[in-house]
């Protein structure tokens, strides 16, 4: 039996059992999925995990975001082809299709034979250098996706700033970040902080510095009623569902929002009432 240094033999058994129990509670990190094989991954901070089902919407079903789609699609294709590409920030009203567009653009590039994969980050941002190390040697392009990002203070975003540009651990050439956020500048503007600063302009510049690191910034805005109904109509036609415009508007009114997300929720309800699956 092994003996713990400085502890009587009679004490070793309980300590060994405790150590074994701790090992079971904290197992070794799982093996990463092959980064050259799957269309999409999740990054949990210690390993890449292949996404169980990556089924992005066809681009033609995304209405009201034609300009944003064209720009982001061109940028992703440049990345996939090994050309210069930008890190992208998609900002704006909730439910307006930011996340859906990211996934659909990646799916369209893959359908066209492009060597690019999506990696969605579901871990703290301080694990990104380890992710970059894992992706750098792979002969494939990666769009690292951070959904619904926001910081409460400028200091919280400084680590990401260095990863985007200028830091020792900046992302490799085959990796670009695509970030969605409800706020254009990621960090709320604290008027009291600006007023109390010795130089208020310095405080403003610090808050804007992170958003400025993204070479591509695409805004998404709240829909009017016609835009909302256009999205509903597109979904309904794609799934062969008859719909009533007044009912669709009432659905959005009850939820206090007209958005692509609300349009899809209406379609799900309509399909369920019609006895159809989606």
Concise overview:
This protein has 10 helices and 7 strands. The chain has helices at about 10-25, 65-80, 100-110, 130-135, 160-165, 190-195, 200-210, 225-240, 245-255, 260-275, and strands spanning about 40-45, 50, 90, 115-120, 140-145, 175-180, 215-220. Helix 2 crosses helix 3 and helix 8 crosses helix 10.
Could you characterize the architecture of this molecule?
- It holds the Pfam family DUF815.
- With 278 residues, this protein is an alpha/beta fold.
- The chain has two domains: 40-220, Rossmann fold (3-Layer(aba) Sandwich); 225-273.
- The chain has ten helices and seven strands.
- The protein has helices at 9-25, 66-80, 98-111, 128-135, 158-164, 191-196, 200-212, 225-238, 245-255, 260-273, and strands at 40-43, 48-50, 88-92, 116-121, 141-146, 175-181, 216-220.
- It has a seven-stranded mixed β-sheet, sandwiched between helices.
- Helix 2 crosses helix 3 and helix 8 packs across helix 10.
- The longest helix is centred in the first third of the chain and has 17 residues, at 9-25.
- The N and C termini lie far apart (61 Å).
- The relative contact order is 0.13.
- Mean pLDDT is 82; it is low at 1-5 and 191-205.
């Amino acid at each position: 039996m092994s003996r713990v240094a400085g502890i009587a033999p009679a004490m070793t058994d309980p300590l060994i059992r405790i150590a074994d129990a701790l090992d079971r509670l904290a197992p070794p990190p799982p093996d990463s999925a092959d980064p050259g094989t799957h269309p999409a991954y999740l990054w949990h901070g210690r390993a890449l995990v292949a996404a169980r089902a990556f089924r992005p919407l066809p681009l033609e079903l995304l209405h009201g975001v034609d300009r944003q789609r064209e720009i982001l699609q061109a940028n992703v294709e440049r990345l996939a082809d090994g050309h210069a590409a930008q890190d992208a920030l998609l900002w704006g009203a909730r439910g307006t299709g930011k996340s859906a567009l990211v996934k659909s653009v990646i799916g369209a590039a893959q359908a066209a034979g492009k060597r690019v994969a999506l990696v969605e980050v579901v871990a703290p941002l301080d694990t990104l250098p380890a992710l970059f190390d894992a992706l750098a040697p792979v002969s494939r392009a990666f769009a690292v996706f951070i959904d619904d990002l926001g910081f409460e203070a400028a200091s919280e975003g400084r680590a990401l700033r260095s990863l985007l540009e200028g830091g020792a651990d900046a992302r490799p050439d085959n990796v670009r970040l695509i970030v969605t956020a409800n706020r254009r500048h990621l960090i709320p503007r604290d008027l009291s902080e600006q007023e109390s600063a010795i130089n208020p302009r310095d405080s403003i510049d610090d808050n804007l510095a992170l958003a400025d690191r993204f070479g591509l910034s695409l805004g998404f805005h709240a829909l009017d009623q016609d835009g909302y109904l256009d999205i509903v109509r597109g979904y309904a036609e794609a799934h062969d569902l008859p719909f009533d415009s007044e009912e669709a508007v009432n659905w959005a009114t009850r939820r206090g929002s007209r958005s692509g997300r609300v349009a899809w929720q209406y379609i799900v309800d309509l399909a369920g009432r019609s006895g159809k699956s989606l």
